[in-house]
């Protein structure tokens, strides 16, 4: 490189101008490409994603047209455990009651993919969207990980088709712990923790799941291969507890609940 003032810059200028011109032409030609722009998604674009996700999440059977227009077949299969044809034929049961949204956050767009976090009364979830034919559609829904407070023991809990795999001896007598959950199965699973009445059985736990009484712990839509931490709102009181997964078996003709295939377990807090 020349040390004479101005010489190096003069020699480089034609090449630099050529590169700049080529870059400008490329960006004009591919103006829709994110590679030509450092702009972040606009507030309006992020708001559109959140609006689609929120309305879809809160849809009732009366809004079936909007719902089916904004969900993919993958979402129907992995969250509602149904084909599009079957779900549309019985929208009242398939869509069910609307689920309120308490908060939406951490929304991001990456090309034709987007995601947002939905906080609902029964859990916090990540909704993943894809853009098809100029329209955002909800494609997947998965559990989020809880923050385990410092000093809280983490107990490994593996989900398989169809069982809970953990060491009961790892449950601390204090009841202050959380689960480190890994779905090693091929289907979505849930972890429902129900306190059994004195002398009660797992069958009692199953009957309680339909009542208004809230479970001791709940983590829904843990997708295959996903790992999440599950925290409890407070230390579990002494007693016997049941772990239950009631999601349907999507591979079986009867869509039997997972607990009917053995996805039940018990543990004690002493």
Description:
The protein has helices spanning 7-29, 43-57, 64-69, 73-78, 84-89, 91-95, 202-208; strands spanning 103-110, 113-120, 123-132, 135-143, 153-160, 163-165, 177-183, 189-195, 217-222, 227-230, 239-244, 264-269. It folds into two domains: 43-143, Nuclear Transport Factor 2, Chain: A, CATH 3.10.450.50; 153-269, Cupredoxins -  blue copper proteins (Immunoglobulin-like, Sandwich). The chain has seven helices and twelve strands. 25% of the residues lie in helices and 30% in strands. The protein has 270 residues and is of the alpha+beta class.
Main sheet: strands, sense, barrel: 4 strands, antiparallel
Give the CATH superfamily of the largest domain: Cupredoxins -  blue copper proteins
Total domain modules? 2
Spatial ordering of strands, largest sheet = 1-2-3-4
Structure class: alpha+beta
Helix share of residues? 25-40%
Strand composition percent: 25-35%
Per DSSP E runs of 2 or more residues, the count of β-strands stands at: 12
Protein topology:
Layout (H helix, E strand, L loop, with lengths): L6 H23 L13 H15 L6 H6 L3 H6 L5 H6 L1 H5 L7 E8 L2 E8 L2 E10 L2 E9 L9 E8 L2 E3 L11 E7 L5 E7 L6 H7 L8 E6 L4 E4 L8 E6 L19 E6 L1
